[in-house]
Task: inverse folding
């Protein structure tokens, strides 16, 4: 059988190939090939009896359990906590343990902690100048140094004993403590131990912590937000054993699930919010408050349990009396609480998943400074969050979900979150809030309550991989936020990560939390934008949502690793995503797909009477040489025109004249075709479609689908999405053939017209290139002011301004 090749006529330029190679266990020693679709097996841990190749807990998966019984007292005047705790540690691992590691996160504030000792100073103004310029030290930095110098911070721990009252050796190592057991703890066994502890509470605004107190000078009261407040067991895992990396600030917490029984003694006029369910409401709440709580269960809008007027009355004077609030929490990985006499308290019941599901109480605690902003939006945002997140994961499993206002801008714990936005007191006594504060409150409540799902239930290792909780949660809070109000800039669109993606301040997303250069874009925005792209562009919503929910349900109350997430998303969606994880999470490549050229081609018919006429037309369409054009304009005659008798055959027949020889060749060509070949060929000639070759360059290194918008001469448009696998054989340059009907000639092509892939340069996405829209501002040039020395002779005549109730100025004068 004779094989034929159809010719498409066009001008073609050679392509340059880069010599970049990616170092790996697979070595490419010949040529310039780089496999951007290489499988991740070499980078991921080998599946085992604890975690299988599908990304699910395997048959021998285990995790430890730690139960806490704590009695704690808040000394409001001294701003100090004193407590006693008993811990029950259940060894579900297959290993015998000779010691236990605990996290002492309050020790991060000690002057000799690793975090403090390794804190760096930005003295860039001091470098590179023989006479260094003055650098800057903020008043906030000075305030922090002064507070830490004036206060003894960190834990005081005493009486570490086993359940028989025998002392246990405890060794403190920075923000960790090792307790040596009196006898080895074998698999399947448990051990109990107790200790006393105390610490001075930091002022959050001064130190910049995740918890602490806030003082209100105008009414003399404080809000206390208590978190990382008790010595907590470090996690012991199948993938790392003891996760005893010190707390340096960025990497958050890795903890075990357990049951909590906590009694909190505070001033009698304080209102307490905490992880868990209040077990002694009849003791600490009035009959009216308990009745309001019952009303709130079925209310359409939040009901005040403690009203604003009641909170204002509480503010007026303190008390020497105390109350003990008793909370119990089942199967949580941490415990936090808040206490203040300034709190008003509202609540609303949320019924999820039908009447058979337990009611969840959404509740908010805030001072008068929260104002209408908190009254309108905090509790409603809690409910909205649960509605959306439950759709993507599982029903909210706890009895309460709380939002508490205080000095912490945003922080999450099981069943309770700390959120910062407030109203502003105006001169006329009213309180107002900006649009930015409204957006901040709605956004931070959604984000922090969302964290109760990830990582407070889907219990990823925050100390190692911040993106596993912040990135996944930022993606979901973007879904919830845009379902609340899509006009609010939620920061999870691909376009929101472009500046960071092309910056030099990147590290791979998989970098350990404390080593990340810019935590916000690296751990929050980039992973969120990546998942947004994965859902909307690569997998589609149906596949993505199924796989993501499978991940959430597989790892509910368990501890997933990145490999478990990657494998689950692939296994449940049925799509190979190794190229995506490698590019977005393991490299600092960015997306920059350039549409370099578009070739318009036409199918040669092989018929000389048609093709030669086309070639003649192409020649005629070429621009007339300037020399010829000017000679014509000057009326100059050609020699052959002035001497018509001196001509021959070639003056009447050009090089595109068809001869019978070409016609016979064409007939022979048709005759030798197989019947199916001739049918195919003649149909192609009859249809006379438009053939275009689009030439692309991958300038950013990150392979992605090519999203095309084709604009036609008749005004219509068409979207064509080319999968990322087009780059599998050449990650730098590819060509794509596009065929359109005869009556649909292309006029322009755009790549990623909706900005869905985080492409960093949209101007090379258009063909033909577009005029770049921008703007210009008119301004009046200021006259330059020459530097002048101080005019002391004149300045010394200035009167010194008098300070009220201060005689120092008089003495100076």
Result:
């Amino acid at each position: 059988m004779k094989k034929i090749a159809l010719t498409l006529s066009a001008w073609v330029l050679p392509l340059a190939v880069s010599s970049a190679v990616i170092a790996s266990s697979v070595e490419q020693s010949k040529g310039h090939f780089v496999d951007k679709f290489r499988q991740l097996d070499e980078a991921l841990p080998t599946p085992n009896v604890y975690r299988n190749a599908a990304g699910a807990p395997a048959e021998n998966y285990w995790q430890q359990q730690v139960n806490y019984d704590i009695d704690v007292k808040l000394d409001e005047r001294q701003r100090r906590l004193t407590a006693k705790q008993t811990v029950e540690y259940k060894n579900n691992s297959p290993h015998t343990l000779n010691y236990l590691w605990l996290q002492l996160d309050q020790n991060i504030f000690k002057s000799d902690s690793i975090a403090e000792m390794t804190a760096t100073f930005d003295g860039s103004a001091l470098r590179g100048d023989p006479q260094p310029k003055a650098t800057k030290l903020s008043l906030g930095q000075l305030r922090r140094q002064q507070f830490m110098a004036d206060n003894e911070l960190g834990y005081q721990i005493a009486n570490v004993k086993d359940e028989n009252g025998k002392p246990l050796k405890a060794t403190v190592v920075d923000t960790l403590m090792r307790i040596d057991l009196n006898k080895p703890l074998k698999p399947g066994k448990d051990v109990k131990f107790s200790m006393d502890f105390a610490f001075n509470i930091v002022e959050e605004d001064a130190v910049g912590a995740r918890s602490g107190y806030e003082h209100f000078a105008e009414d003399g009261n404080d809000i206390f937000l208590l978190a990382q407040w008790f010595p907590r067991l470090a996690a012991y895992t199948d993938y790392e054993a003891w996760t005893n990396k010190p707390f340096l600030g960025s990497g958050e917490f890795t903890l075990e699930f357990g049951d909590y029984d906590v009694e909190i003694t505070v001033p009698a006029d304080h209102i307490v919010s905490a992880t868990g369910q209040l077990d002694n409401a009849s003791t600490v709440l009035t009959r009216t408050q308990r009745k309001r709580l019952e009303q709130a269960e079925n209310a359409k809008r939040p009901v005040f349990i403690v009203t604003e007027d009641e909170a204002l009355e509480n503010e007026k004077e303190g008390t020497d009396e105390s109350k003990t609030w008793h909370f119990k929490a089942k199967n949580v990985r941490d415990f936090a609480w808040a206490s203040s006499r300034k709190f008003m308290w509202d609540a609303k019941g949320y019924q999820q998943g039908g009447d058979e599901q337990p009611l969840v109480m959404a509740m908010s605690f805030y001072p008068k400074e929260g104002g209408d902003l908190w009254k309108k939006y905090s509790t409603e945002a809690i409910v909205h969050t649960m509605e959306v997140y439950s759709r993507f994961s599982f029903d909210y499993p706890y009895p309460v979900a709380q939002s508490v206002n205080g000095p912490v801008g945003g922080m999450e714990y099981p069943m309770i979150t700390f959120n910062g936005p407030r109203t502003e007191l105006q001169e006329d006594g009213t309180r107002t809030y900006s649009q930015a504060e409204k957006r901040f409150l709605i956004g931070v409540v959604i984000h922090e309550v969302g964290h109760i799902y990830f990582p407070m239930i889907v219990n990823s290792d925050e100390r190692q991989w911040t993106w596993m909780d912040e990135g996944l949660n930022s993606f979901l809070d973007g879904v919830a936020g845009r379902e609340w109000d899509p006009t609010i800039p939620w920061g999870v669109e691909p376009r929101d990560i472009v500046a960071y993606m092309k910056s030099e301040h990147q590290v791979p997303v998989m970098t350990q939390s404390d080593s990340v250069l810019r935590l916000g874009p690296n751990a929050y925005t980039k992973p969120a934008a990546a998942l947004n792209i994965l859902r909307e562009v690569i997998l589609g919503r149906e596949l993505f949502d199924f796989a993501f929910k499978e991940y959430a349900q597989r790892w509910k109350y368990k501890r997933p690793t990145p490999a478990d997430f990657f494998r689950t998303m692939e296994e449940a969606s049925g799509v190979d995503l190794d190229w995506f994880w490698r590019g977005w999470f393991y490299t600092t490549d960015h997306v920059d797909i350039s549409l370099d050229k578009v070739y318009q081609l036409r199918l040669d018919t092989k018929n000389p009477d048609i093709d030669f006429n086309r070639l003649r037309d192409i020649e005629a369409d070429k621009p007339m040489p300037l020399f010829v054009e000017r000679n014509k304009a000057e009326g100059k005659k050609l020699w052959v025109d002035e001497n018509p008798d001196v001509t021959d055959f070639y003056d009447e027949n050009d090089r595109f004249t068809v001869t019978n020889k070409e016609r016979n060749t064409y007939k022979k060509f048709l005759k030798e075709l197989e019947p199916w070949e001739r049918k195919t060929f003649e149909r192609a000639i009859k249809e006379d479609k438009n053939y275009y070759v689009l030439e692309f360059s991958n300038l950013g290194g990150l392979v992605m689908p090519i999203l095309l918008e084709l604009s036609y001469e008749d005004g219509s448009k068409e979207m064509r999405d080319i999968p990322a696998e087009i780059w599998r054989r050449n990650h730098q340059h590819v060509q794509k053939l596009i065929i359109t009907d005869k009556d649909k000639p292309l006029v322009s092509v755009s790549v990623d017209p909706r900005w869905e892939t985080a492409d960093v340069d949209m101007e090379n996405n258009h063909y033909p290139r577009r005029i770049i829209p921008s703007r210009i501002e008119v301004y009046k040039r200021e006259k330059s002011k020459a530097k002048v020395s101080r005019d002391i002779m004149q300045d010394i005549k200035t009167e010194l301004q008098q300070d009220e109730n201060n005689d120092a100025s008089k003495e100076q004068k």
About this structure: Residues 371-392 form the longest helix (22 residues).
